[in-house]
Amino acid sequence: MSSIEDRIRAEIEGHPVVLFMKGTPQFPMCGFSSRAVQALKAAGAVQMHTVNVLEEPEIRANLPRYSDWPTFPQLFINGELIGGCDITVELSESGELARIVADAQKA
């Protein structure tokens, strides 16, 4: 197991809600990351942990292999990959994301 995989795992397991994104919640650097952040905020994710993959080239290069998901952003809740922007927005629109986030923040 490489140290970058250990680091990715530590990020995912160390926080209930983790978004690997381009940029930051305040300054998203792509539309998909921006929409994912907006969906999470709308779902009440107050303790969202984000990792800016533009500043973390090793994570950017290795996370798609680790998660078996090719694109960014990538949302993990309670250690599980939820998906990217489209799935996050769909879950938000259905109300499911708010329930998942609330459960994660209680745990």
TrEMBL record:
Domain Glutaredoxin: 17-82
UniProt xrefs under InterPro entries: Glutaredoxin, GRX_PICOT-like, Monothiol_GRX, Monothiol_GRX-rel, Thioredoxin-like_sf
Keywords for the protein's UniProt record, in alphabetical order: 2Fe-2S, Iron, Iron-sulfur, Metal-binding, Redox-active center
Binding residue positions for glutathione: K22, R60, F72, C85, D86
Keyword Nucleus set for record: no
Single GO term (MF): metal ion binding
Keyword flag Metal-binding: yes
Family: Belongs to the glutaredoxin family. Monothiol subfamily.
Protein name: Glutaredoxin
Gene for this chain: grxD
